[in-house]
Amino acid sequence: MPPRKPNPNRGNHHDGSARMVLAAELSRLREKAGLSLSELADKTAYDRTHLYRLETGEKRGSPAVMAALDQTYGTGKHLVDLWELARDDVFRDKYKRFMELEKRASVWQQYAIGAIPGLLQTESYAREMLGFVYAEDEDELEVQLAARMARQERLHGEGRLNVRAILDESVLRRPMKDASAWHQQLRHLLRTADFPNVTVQVLPYSAGLHHLLGTSLTVLWFPDGTSVAYNETNMTAELFEEPADVERLKLSYDLLRDSALPPRESVALIRNILEAGTSCESRPST
To answer: How open is the CA angle 107-112-118, to the nearest 5 degrees?
Structure first.
């Protein structure tokens, strides 16, 4: 039998990326099940065109659609697990190494200046933030959103991440477009700060100038005692792995932590901001 001619409408499943491996597997499982795309759409309630784009690798999909397909094919969590491998393709190359390291880390420390850290965001907050970048591509926004929310699994269960987040006060003073969604985010932050493995501190305006002004910093610690640092501005990002560079940035972080409010006072400030916002929202207009 002559070899099957390649379908020109399909992506190259042999390009080595996890995303295309997933696409090939989606196509293989549907063909094995003897289903057309229309029949699969009826079984999963997902649009035929969307399913086709998953099989060509044009779209990455989401955990929800993979779970629906796993259920249809009786493949357990096979496709969900493949999607988790493929989601690394979501991140641009300059972030990929950092994301790989974050999966191995046991301690995560961050100073945040522009926004609430992804590990502490609600889905609504994350959607609004990502919407500025992916306003023209709803499918990509959903993929990015799913990847961001999946990172929060590290806060729970066995081997959970130990987190210390220092939030610049400006982060707490910059609301979302929807006041109720912003209050939900603040309440989520308070709940998360109650986790035994999470510490939240606020760096108040009164702390003045400091070494990390204008930059966000993340320090990852690994079980073997080594660490890396990731320094980011709104235009650049750099991963530091050389011990001397990491030690210098860790010192800056430690100095900043000393200037931040203690955890209990930080939580009180967040609560005060929330209560002030909700009281203003509920106040009748004149």
So the answer is: 65
Give pLDDT tens digits for 95-105. Answer: 778 888 999 99
Residue 214 has what DSSP assignment?
T
**Fold that domain 94-281 belongs to in CATH:** Endonuclease; Chain A (3.30.870)
What is the CATH number assigned to the segment(s) 18-88? 1.10.260.40
Closest CA to 51 of 33, 67, 34, 69: 69
Pull the structure tokens for residue 231. 């320094």
**253-273 burial: b if 16+ Cβ within 10 Å, else e:** beebeeebbeeeebbebbeeb
- What CA–CA distance (Å, rounded) separates 273 from 266? 11
pLDDT tens-digit readout, 35-59: 999 999 999 999 999 999 999 988 8
What are the tens digits of pLDDT across the range 145-156?
A: 998 999 999 999
Same fold, 18-88 and 94-281: no
CB 100 within 8 A of CB 93: no
Q: What is the mean pLDDT of residues 169-178?
A: 95
Where in the chain does DSSP place strands (E)?
107-112, 162-168, 198-203, 216-221, 227-232, 237-240
